[in-house]
Amino acid sequence: MTSATVAKSSGTTWPGLPAGELTVEKTNVAKKLLPGVKTVKTTDVHQAVVSFRDQVYQDYLLKFRAQVLQIERSRQNQLDTVNRWREKWLQSVVSVTQLY
């Protein structure tokens, strides 16, 4: 079993993750962090875990934003299709009413 190297400090307060970033609505609310975690000792393992957590969070945030963008594009395409259909329908109604 290996032992983790303890840093020469009286502990660390690890920052929390940003709150409110994983929402669909765009808000102008000031960025807040979730509560951090205070450890008595700081080891290489602590640093690795927090670093990996931050990396995973950033990867997830990028995927989340890409998915939201894809949904918005799909929504806009569907709205465009409905509007084109409606316009063609109205043109057809006008054309038929002009015939009679």
How is the topology of this model organized?
Layout: E1 12-14, E2 18-19, E3 32-33, E4 37-39, H1 44-99
Antiparallel strand pairs: 1-4, 2-3
Shape annotation: rod-shaped
Strand content: 5-15%
Number-wise, the strands total 4
Ranges where pLDDT stays below 50 over 5 or more residues in a row are none
Order of helices and strands: EEEEH
In DSSP terms (H or I, runs of 4 or more residues), the helix count works out at 1
Question: For the terminal residues, how far apart are their CA atoms?
Answer: 92 Å
Mean pLDDT equals 84
Largest sheet: 2 strands, antiparallel
Helix content percent band: 55-70%
Strand order across the largest sheet: 1-4
Summarize the structure.
The protein is mainly α. The protein has one helix at 44-99, and strands spanning 12-14, 18-19, 32-33, 37-39.
Please, could you describe this protein's structure?
The relative contact order is 0.11. A two-stranded antiparallel ribbon has the order 1-4. With 100 residues, the protein is mostly helical. The mean pLDDT is 84. It is 56% helix and 10% strand. The protein has one helix and four strands. It is rod-shaped.
